[in-house]
Amino acid sequence: MKTNHVVGTPGRLLAGTSALLLGACLAGALSARAADAPKPSAPGDAASDADDAELLNWVQFGVGGNFISGDKAQFQTQKGLPSGAFGGLEGFHFESPVDKKGLFTADGRGMFDNHDYSIKLELSHPDKGFIRAGYSQYRVYYDGIGGYLPSNGLIFPGLFDNRLAVDRAHTFFEAGLTLPDKPVITFRYDLDTRDGLKDTTSWGQSTLTPKSVQKKIVPGFRDLDETRHTFSLDVKHAIGNTEFGLGGRYEIQANDDLKTIYQQPTQGTTARTLNQAEGVHADIANAHAYTDTKLNDKWEFTTGYSFSTLHSVLSGSRYNKAIVTPLSATDTRFANLAGGSDLNQYVMNLNLMYSPSTNWFIIPSVRVEKEDLTGSATDNVVTGTATPVVSPATQFANNDKGSLYVTEALDLRYVGITNWAFYTRVEFSEDRSDLSEQFGTNITKAATIFRDTEWNRLLQKYTIGANWYPIRKANFGAQYYHRISDNDYHNTLDSTSNLGTSGDRFPGYLGAQNFDVDDVNFRMTLRPLPLLTLVTRYDYQLSTAYTQPDLLAGIESARNQRHLIGQTISWTPLNWLAVQANGNYVRSTTHSPVEDLTGAMTGVVLSAPNNYWTAGLTLGFVLDDKTDLQTSYSYYRANNYVDNSLVGLPYGAGARQHEVGVTLTRRISRSMRWNLQYAFSSYHDETSGGALNYEAHGILSSLQYRF
């Protein structure tokens, strides 16, 4: 099994490089200031005016820490901060003119123990070009605690350290020529990487449950090792009233990941791990072009074209390993996974803007997209327990898909009535796909499962809205849209249709699915007093899904209603006090006919509410001419969790969170500023039986110097 990759040397090397660069910038700046230090002068003379010049360069150092009781991994996941001490260079900026128009800039950051580093250098001249280069790295935290069974309190938090993290890094180089009256040429290279451990929703099974029913709540994790190289070249130029653009992009992607899932841990001879190696290597090439022509004062025409081709190669295997004794149970395993896919994509855009007067804007547009996709995969079945055997019989799967998407849209905008702006948009999309699928257990024989499916979709969306500005202290906005998506499926060839009621026809039993969405929202901004602003928003959405299975009557399979109410208040009642308050309430519930089933199915599937509300208050105080104090409080509550774990899968969120923050800012001098921040956070989660709960205290002190 792969081990976790901890970034150490590259980050410290980068931090050291940043420190040297920063030191050189500061040394040069301070030396220049010392050499050119002016003598004391009276207010109003040239030297005094120089002292009042804007300080464009700055450096800020900080040190702090978080003290946590409870689930440290959950705190790290929500806040993106480490659970201990951290500190270093919060940031710096340095700029210096080059010649008369050129400019050199350097920006950076380096926070130790948070794996947060960055540096960016740029040299630019508006009449010549630019060169940019940089590196950044940051850490994303994950909680690998797994699931929770409320009926008997079963949870597996101790299988491994659930404080998981992935380091994401980005390196780039960009250069461009911007010569006057010449084509603008830009080249760019990007390198993106992901390295580390994260949780996965592919959970393992346990039978330490009431009646030994299998429940998949055992945590798993993914070990990521991913790299992507991207090269791009773009050229644009204007001839007369037309601007032309032409470019290309080439991408190389290599993912070599490993998924580990625990199966029946702490259950003696059946305890084991399931490891799945997943390799995806892909090459993507793209060519694109555009034109933008201003025909006259009333007409403008734009076009765009893009062609992309992708070739991917798959590899991998799935195997299990006993934890205690030789295996006495089996899992679905395979070896020698091979295959891949090829995709060609063609996209064309045409847009025309017509302004018959200063009050009207009419924009018709057309988008056409065509995709051709083929894919295939083979593997060998692994059988046996104590002595696994790789079967010579090969499983294979093939698919071939062709799609065509055509979208037409018309946008209208009218501003001919004083203090009013009206707009509307109509959009139609006609989509069609043909999908052929095959699956077999021996590559030398015909497929045992095959299906040919034709899919047609008609998408319609109608939008209308208006903004009204009756007085300077008030404005209103309203919008409504209706969206229709009609999907028809026709299985022209389906081997599973002969399997009767005992066969698995998914998804071949679907004949049609239709989705309707209605949404209306209102916005209001009021300024009843010069220093008081009120912003109110209301949004209502109704979504329905209609499903038509083969040989059965159609039903309304789901209905969702959503209300959102939001209010923000900004007020400065005194010259030393500023107040901002906000609140949001969301009421959203999804219903389906399965909720009404009785007998053995009672309570198996419940309604899916997603109701929650938030509230926040921020106060800003001016203590004196050099000291500011800011305090804040926020609250979050969701109460939708229902424990039906004895008969089904619990859904819904059930959590409560309080957060308090205090920031003290002291301007020591014109060039020096000190900040002290304190934060408290309390989180309680019902869906984990309290396993995700935490309380955290955080403190950060920072010092900024401007020069």
Describe this structure in words.
With 707 residues, this protein is mainly beta. It is 6% helix and 68% strand. It has helices at 9-35, 46-51, 72-79, and strands at residues 58-70, 85-98, 102-112, 116-125, 129-143, 148-149, 154-155, 163-177, 184-206, 215-239, 242-263, 272-294, 299-322, 333-354, 360-383, 389-414, 420-440, 449-471, 474-494, 510-529, 532-549, 555-574, 577-591, 608-609, 612-624, 627-639, 654-669, 672-685, 694-706. The longest helix is centred in the N-terminal third of the chain and has 27 residues, at 9-35. The radius of gyration is 31 Å and the shape is globular. The relative contact order is 0.08. Residues 1-50 and 499-503 have low confidence and may be disordered.
Features:
single chain; 707 residues; mainly beta; 26-stranded antiparallel barrel; two-stranded antiparallel sheet; 3 helices; 68% strand; globular
Short description:
The protein has helices at residues 9-35, 46-51, 72-79, and strands at 58-70, 85-98, 102-112, 116-125, 129-143, 148-149, 154-155, 163-177, 184-206, 215-239, 242-263, 272-294, 299-322, 333-354, 360-383, 389-414, 420-440, 449-471, 474-494, 510-529, 532-549, 555-574, 577-591, 608-609, 612-624, 627-639, 654-669, 672-685, 694-706. The chain has 707 residues and is mainly β. It has a 26-stranded antiparallel β-barrel. The chain has a two-stranded antiparallel sheet with strand order 6-7.
